Every structure is written in structure tokens, then in C-alpha cells.
Amino acid sequence: MNAQELVQKHKLLECIQCGMCTGSCPVAKKANLNIRRYMREVAALGRLTIHPENELWSCTTCSTCGIRCPKDLDPYEFLIDIRSMAVEGGQIAPTIRDALESIFKNGNPWARIRSKRSEWSQNLNVKHISQGAEMLYYVGCTSAYDPRIQSVAQDLVKCFEKAEINFGVLGDEENCCGSEVYGMGEKGLFEFLVEENMKIFNKYNIKQLVTSCPHGFHAFKNRYNQTNFEPQHHTQFLAKLIDEGKLSLTKEVNKKIIYHDPCFLGKQNGIYEEPRKIIESIPGAELLEFDRSRARSLCCEGGGGRMWVDIPGSRLSETRVIDAVAAGAEILAVACPFCLLTIEDAVKTTGNEGKIQIMDIAELLSLAL
Ligand code: SF4
Ligand code: SF4
User: Fold this and answer.
1) Which ligand sits nearest to residue 31's alpha carbon?
2) How confident is the model at residue 65, as a pLDDT?
3) Less crowded by CB within 10 Å, the N or C end of the chain?
């Protein structure tokens, strides 16, 4: 893509240089990322200087810049295209390259082999989608392989079973959704994954898909260009089950719980109410709010490939933990595997172990069943 094409595709001439995008960007100061300057260079000078690695790979694709832009532009989509150009030119951080290679070879970014993908469910009675299941639980790479996040998948299964949902999984046939591949700018690999995944979904005639990862949810909903099924995030699905009286919450969880909106669920897809409804329906639970919540929520720095790129300096997830403890929360609830990992790590690095627990909403809900 050349400068002219970038100008047209991203409507760069409509930019009024107000700086709201850079001003609202959570990593602008830390990584010296000035998205407005990138756009101006291309629009005004017709060229793009490739900036130092940390700048280009620091964006979490949180979409805050797009939400704040008064001209309705999406600066982060422009930045993803610049990443694509960098990837094509071989200018890529080594850790990003390793994650992309693993996705191509193993179907996951964690360098784990495909035949271990269903290990998380070995002690559960989870059937394959082909065995008469009506709904697909798309587990996702991090929930399938990461030992901490596997417990979220296991507790979600407990919720499905309690509500007598006829669900199935793809087992070792499941493949990376490609969300982070897209964000990292490897659009060729992303298209390959879409094709492969749609073949599998069509083979099993998938009409209903629930996933516990907002990144997979976002990709299936907004990047796959498909209408065969309407993906749901597990918080949407669980909130509906509670509404319909299919899940009775009998046990008390007498805790102060603060909810962190994941960027890919909240800002990217406008899902703010369902996770809060679930927490509020748990007997004994008291829902607290961050000052920066909903569309103003602070990014955890886990998206857009940032799970594989460490940018030096204090982390936003650390700010999140400090704010949650100051608000008096005993549990910080999340609804995304990346948020869970980054924020739980921040509990240790900020010395707050024993003061606050980080839990996915599915884990919280299973305590109340
Ligand atoms: S998507 Fe988020 S991190 Fe990336 S440039 Fe926009 S505001 Fe900054
Ligand atoms: S917020 Fe929108 S209009 Fe303002 S500088 Fe950024 S891209 Fe341009």
C-alpha cells in the first residue's frame, strides 16, 4: 500500500490535527507513540518514516483513539496498515515473528503443539461438536494452553453444564482465531486462518458460537466478514442464562468486586452491561466502579500483539491494580484472558499479593452456583 492509498482508505485528509487521538492514547508517553504525527506525515508529506520499533509495536489496538476522534477516523486501523507494510518489509520485532511462526505451524502463538490443545478438558466430560451439540464453545489459544486461564474454561464449562446447555468443542481441530495476527499486521496469515477456520465451522454447520476471549469474539464478529453465525462473548451468554432463569445462583460471594472493561469487549464492541449484570446478580457481591470505566477504561496493554512485546516502563495493568486496591476492592473481575494475565502479574509487581484477587467473571459465577 502506498501513501496515496493510505490517505484514501483512512480518510487522512479529514484529520483536523486536533491531537485527541494522541492525547487519549494510553501508551503515547511511555512509548513515544504519536499516532497523529504518523497520519500527518503520510497525508502532508506523502511518505512515511519507519519509526523506532518500540513506537510501531507499542500500540495495543485498544481503539481509544478512534473513540475520541471528532472526525470519526480510526487511527489504529491506519497503524495496523503501517505494521503490515513493516511486516512485508521484514521489519518486525523477533518476539512478534516467533508468535506469528508458531501460529502458522501450531495454530497457536504460545509455541505449543496442536495435539495438546484439548488437555484443559481432560478431566471434564466435554463432547466434540460433531456429537450432536447445538452450540460451539470456541475455547481460544490462551484458554486452551495457559495453565492459569484453563481454569476459566473449566469454570465456564461448569456454568454451561449447570444450565444444561448442549454444547461441544472442536478439540485439537481448533485453530487460532487470528485476532492478534491481524493486529500485528500479518494480513496474509490472517486471511489464511479465516479460510481454514470457516472451512471447519462450515464442516460442522456452526450456527451458534460462544467464546471466552473478547479478541476472538471481535475477530469473528467484525473481521471475518461472515454471516453464518452470530458470535457471543461468554458474558453475553451467561447474562442471558441468568435472565432466563436457567442458572440459579444459590451461594453467596460476600466480596467487593470491581470490574475492568476489556478494550475488545467494551470500547470495540460496546458490551458494558452484561458483565455488570452478572456480578450484580451474585448474592452478596457488591459491584464497585473504577473512575476510568466503560469507554474511558484503561487498557491493560495485552492487545494488538503486546503480549509478545514488552515496552520498558511502568505498566498500565499496575495502575489498574493500584486503583482497584485504593477503591477498596477485594476482587478485580475481568472478562478477557489477556487482562487476567497482565493484571494478575501486576498484582505481584506492585506488591499487592494477598490484598486483591483477579478473577474472570466465569470463575466468579461458578463460585455462586
Ligand atoms: S489503539 Fe490505543 S494504543 Fe493504539 S494508538 Fe490508538 S489509543 Fe494508542
Ligand atoms: S483525533 Fe482524529 S481528527 Fe484529531 S488528530 Fe487524531 S485523527 Fe485527526
Assistant:
1) 1
2) 98
3) N
Q: Which residues of the chain have pLDDT under 70?
A: 50-53
Q: Which residue has the cell 483513539?
A: 65
Q: What is the dihedral of CA 264, 306, 21, 349, to 10 degrees?
A: 100
Please work out whether the CB of residue 306 comes within 6 Å of at least one atom of ligand 2.
no
Q: Determine the pLDDT at residue 321.
A: 98
Torsion angle of C-alpha atoms 73, 79, 81, 86, degrees rounded to 10: 160
**Whether residue 8 has its Cβ less than 6 Å from ligand 2:** no
Last residue of a domain, one of 88, 123, 148: 88
The residue out of 59, 88, 117 marking a domain boundary is 88
User: C-alpha distances in angstroms, 25 versus 20, 41, 61, 225, 297?
Assistant: 8, 18, 10, 28, 12
Residues 131 and 58 in one domain: no
Provide the domain count of the chain: 3
The per-residue pLDDT for 320 is: 98
Instruction: Tell which residue, 287, 155, 307, 156, has the closest CA to residue 232.
Output: 156
Q: Which atom of ligand 1 is nearest to the CA of 61?
A: 1
Same domain, 127 and 233: yes
Instruction: Return the residue whose CA atom lies nearest to atom 7 of ligand 2.
Output: 15
Q: Which residues contact 5 (CB under 8 A, 6 or more apart)?
A: none
Per the structure, the complete domain to which residue 347 belongs is given by 249-367
Q: Are residues 232 and 339 in the same domain?
A: no
Residue 59 in contact with ligand 1 by CB distance below 6 A: yes
- Cβ-contact 305, 99 below 8 angstroms: yes
Give the atom of ligand 2 at the shortest distance from the alpha carbon of 22. 6
pLDDT of amino acid 50: 62
Nearest CA, atom 6, ligand 1: 65
Question: Considering only CA atoms, which of 231, 236, 210, 228 is closest in space to residue 220?
Answer: 231
Which pTM does this prediction carry? 0.97
pLDDT in tens, 190-242: 999 999 999 999 999 999 999 999 999 999 999 999 999 999 999 999 999 99
Mutate to test the pocket of ligand 1, among 34, 38, 51, 62 (most ligand atoms within 8 A of CB): 62
Taking CA atoms only, the protein residue closest to ligand 2 atom 1 is 69
